[in-house]
From TrEMBL:
InterPro entries: YwqG-like_sf (IPR035948)
SUPFAM superfamilies: Hypothetical protein YwqG
Protein name per UniProt: DUF4253 domain-containing protein
Organism the protein comes from: Streptomyces salyersiae
Length: 355
């Protein structure tokens, strides 16, 4: 993989200030998705999947209440609109489609018209083809722990919100890439998406291994009190900006990394931490993948934005051009979707949580 992204060194060695955190260190792999043209044999976000031609494409069988929110568009429309936004002109002239985009737009319009003329039930009322979210090969993401001889993880979701948690439903597949013969050339696509943020933009990856420490909410009460001791931070040379809330420095710059990642520590914020247990064997589940709305936010930009993106992170951006949102994905209120798996058996159902 030719793309490289490098997380800047942390502003301070947290284990030098708080040695008690050393035992809580975990490896994680930041995926650093960036817009591109991944192929079926590439690790990607929102790219094509290495899917066997003879294997049925996953569909969401849940009931989908069709409520016209005014946001729903086909995946093709969502991506075309993003292309136009990315070509915003400073003189306020509207951007124009390229000939290829015009042809794609016409094909999409014809496909939509044919769907309407044929009179089938709207996908909100019938099984909905799922959209690719991530494809991760073990060769690129060695932190994965696949079952048996598997070396490929594929994750899809339904681009509709589902009750009671108002989030897309997800599907997870492990497979052995070498066993895939004929590849499904044209996977089915959903008629529409509930929201543009549920249509991932095709992205290539630049995986990077880092060391993470827990979100401050995951720490014991004793460690949380220790993080509030400004004297220890001051001795380490931390700016007095954080003197009133020292723990904020840890949470912003030293704990768990933002963005798409495999492994590591889960993000919290929407709720306090609580363990996730397998519905089959009751084992405590472990973090697999974080699906992020942002690679970094305004406060974290100088700290977590990769060195290669620092200049872009410091610039002003318009809709569709923010480097902190390369995938176009937004879950929850620009939150994260954390996926968990059972450590005892890959056959046990996974679970996910918005945070």
């Amino acid at each position: 993989m030719g793309l490289i992204r490098t997380t800047p060194p942390r502003p301070v060695d947290v284990t030098a200030v708080f040695p008690e955190l050393a035992l809580l260190a975990r490896p994680a792999m930041r995926l650093h998705p960036r817009p591109g043209s991944p192929a079926v044999r590439d690790s990607s976000v929102g790219g094509p999947l290495l899917w066997p031609a003879r294997e049925p494409w996953p569909h969401c069988e849940d009931a989908h209440l069709h409520v016209d929110t005014g946001f729903r568009q086909s995946p093709t429309e969502v991506r075309l609109q993003r292309r136009l936004q990315s070509r915003w002109r400073p003189d306020d002239r509207p951007p124009v489609f390229t000939p290829e985009e015009e042809a794609l737009k016409e094909r999409n319009a014809a496909w939509l018209a044919a769907r309407f003329d044929a009179g089938p039930p709207r996908p909100a009322e019938c099984p909905v083809p799922m959209l690719p979210v991530a494809q991760l090969f073990l060769r690129d993401i060695p932190l994965l722990q696949p079952p048996g001889q598997a070396d490929l993880l594929q994750i899809l979701w339904c681009p509709y919100e589902h009750e009671p948690d108002a989030k897309p439903s997800t599907a997870l597949f492990w497979r052995t890439a070498a066993e895939v013969g004929d590849i499904l050339a044209t996977p089915p696509e959903p008629y529409e998406a509930d929201y543009p943020g549920y249509v991932p933009e095709p992205c290539v990856l630049a995986p990077e291994t880092i060391t993470e420490y827990p979100n401050s909410l995951d720490l014991s009460p004793e460690l949380q009190l220790a993080l509030d001791d400004w004297d220890r931070w001051q001795a380490a040379g931390i700016d007095s900006y954080y003197a009133e809330y020292p723990r904020e420095f840890y949470s912003t710059h030293l704990g768990n990394a933002p963005g798409w990642k495999v492994g590591g520590w889960p993000p919290w914020g929407r709720t306090d931490p609580y363990p996730r247990y397998c519905a089959v064997c009751e084992a405590q589940m472990v973090p697999l993948l974080t699906i992020a709305s942002w690679e970094w936010d305004g406060d974290q930009g100088p700290s977590w934005a990769p060195l290669e993106d620092q200049a872009a992170a410091a610039a002003s951006h318009y809709a569709g051009q923010d480097p902190a949102q390369p995938t176009g994905v937004e879950v929850g209120s620009t939150d994260n979707m954390q996926m968990y798996v059972c450590p005892t058996s890959p056959k046990h159902p996974h679970t996910d949580l918005i945070q």
